[in-house]
Amino acid sequence: MSFVNISNVVKSFGTNTVVKGFDLAVEKGEFVSFLGPSGCGKTTVLRMIVGFETPSSGSITIGGKDVTNVAPNKRNIGMVFQAYALFPNMSVFDNIAFGLKISGMTKQAVSARVEEMLKLIGLTHLANRFPYEMSGGQQQRVALARALAPKPDVLLLDEPLSALDAKIRVSLREEIRDIQKKLGITTVFVTHDQEEALTISDRIVVMNGGRADQIGTPNQIYNKPATRFVAGFVGTLNIIDAKVHNRDDGTVLIGSKKIQLNDPIEHVKPDGMVSLALRPEAFSIVPDAAKDVSLDGTVTSINFLGSVIRAVMDVEGREISFDMFNNPSLMLPDVGDKTSVYFASSDILALPA
Amino acid sequence: MKKPFPIMPTLIALMSALYFLVPLYATFLFSLKMTRGEYSFASYRSVLNSSIFIDTITFSTIASLCAIVIGTVIIVPTAYWVRLKLPHIRPVIEFISLLPLVVPPVVLVFGYIRVFGSNSWLPLAGSDQGTNLLLVFGYVVMSMPYMFRAVDNGMSVIDIKTLTEAAESLGASRIRTIAFVIFPNVRGAIMSGAFLTFSISLGEFVLASLLNRPAFGPYLVQLGQDRAYEPAALAIMAFAFTWACMALMQLFAVKKPGSRWFPRLSIKLYKKVEA
Ligand SMILES: Nc1ncnc2c1ncn2[C@@H]1O[C@H](COP(=O)(O)OP(=O)(O)OP(=O)(O)O)[C@@H](O)[C@H]1O
Ligand SMILES: [Mg+2]
């Protein structure tokens, strides 16, 4: 049995069912992210784990103990909020000490533990500051230390980085991951930022409309999306409608171009079409032995993304996005140019419906 | 580009200031004239030396402080609970809290006497202690609009819900959360409410007079009928007192945690709990 088990949990607010049969098993020491669009129920599931909401049905166990109806202050779960939620009337030291004092530790033990936590987050010199005297990144680190100080069984973070600017977001997420690994604490992390989820998670739960569409490693989620939603939500994806040419030998037509697929064609729509998916990074603008398929079209837009340039071209009425490395020695196409792109047929994903 | 000096606004401000300052100054001058032919503080001395003055102001101060404590204990948890769990009934609570502004104290006190009269089920008005209690409750009711508004505003500034959840996830009980997290953060607001309560109930006349209590308000009125100079002195003192209260309020309202001239309540309470 896993450390945290969420079994068939349903949550309704009035007549509005926002979580519709959610299942998840988190192993001890695992870092799991909830990824999904706004309103898909990420926060609601998290709030049921910590106990701020009670499931309408289903059960939650932590360490083998059923906590479905246990009060939040009896669950021993650390929580980090998007808006930091530090106690404004207390110094950094007192904030971190809050949970420890409740657990009835001696004064010396509290002090020692707070020092240890301050060291962990590298803010020993700010122990006497008040929340309003610190930057957002510092406050969120204190909030993390406060949540971890009483040695919780599980750590929950609800979009802890959303209020911070891009640079700090990246460095702090790495810090969170390091600390999590060091302490080996079971962690659930909510985000709507796919890059964040892909970088720091052991496993990702992609949520859609109150359900888990797919649960898997970042690699599985990115390269083998289980549903069209997952494919579209994680990373940019070209969805190309192709006509089945011969189902038995696995050939399809993109416009007039015949392409041989690697995998058998499973999900054919009634009108004889299949949806194919291709990541923009699967394309190359120079021919390559491994890239056995080519498409021809006219470039309709060029977007500069830094080290990468994303272009869109029109292939017989279909918009296809492809990435090019921003390499000055290459002759990059311009808007209006006719060009060819090359890709490997093994990179094509046939999407379920 | 510099703006021209705002002549009209300044003039209007000056005129309004005069409107208040001239009578005040006149009253002050008058209060100094008790001894014929010279200015002196004789009237002030006379007031401060009177034992009735000391007795009544002590009585009223204690009654006001009791009203503040009871009001705080009732209103802070109520405002907290409404914001946390029942946000949809907040307009109703707000309306109820405003009722004392609509219902005159005379009606309130006759209601009290009817409900708690000597032949009622709870004859509070039958004894001195009981009547004192009624007076304090009356003050609580009368100051409710100010107290509730101050506390509710104070709570709107901090994120009550998230702070409560943060405390709960750290293992705190509801009472502990209120005492150590919510209360210290709305302390400034409670103080403002408390000072308003204090200034309302200290010189209150109708309730004290109709309940026949030896309070400061009735004494003030009595003195106004019997004497000439002392009431002026009292008026000036009351005025100074009110301004002192306002200044204190301002001080508490802008006070940030960490500036240590005010003893930190939270620390002391923690020590008590640990002991
Ligand atoms: N207390 C509540 N009462 C009624 N509806 C609620 C309540 N809490 C959440 N909801 C609804 O449940 C749905 C899911 O909300 P939730 O906060 O879980 O989404 P989320 O995935 O965390 O979104 P976001 O990324 O915007 O934070 C939303 O439609 C929301 O309106
Ligand atoms: Mg959310």
Automatic annotation (TrEMBL), chain B:
List, for all copies, the residue spans of the domain called ABC transmembrane type-1: 53-252
Where does this chain mainly localize?
A: membrane
Compartment(s) where it occurs, according to its Swiss-Prot or TrEMBL record: Cell inner membrane; Cell membrane
Keyword Transmembrane part of the UniProt annotation: yes
- Transmembrane spans: 12-32, 52-80, 92-113, 133-151, 189-211, 231-254
Query: By its UniProt entry, which Gene3D superfamilies does this protein fall under?
Result: MetI-like (1.10.3720.10)
Listed A to Z, the keywords are: Cell inner membrane, Cell membrane, Membrane, Transmembrane, Transmembrane helix, Transport
UniProt entry tagged with the keyword DNA damage: no
Q: PROSITE patterns this protein is in?
A: ABC_TM1 (PS50928)
**This protein is called what?**
ABC transporter permease subunit
Species this chain originates from: Ahrensia kielensis
> What is any Pfam family matched here?
BPD_transp_1
Family to which the UniProt record says this protein belongs: Belongs to the binding-protein-dependent transport system permease family.
Which SUPFAM superfamilies does the record match to this protein? MetI-like
This protein's membrane topology, according to the annotation, is: Multi-pass membrane protein
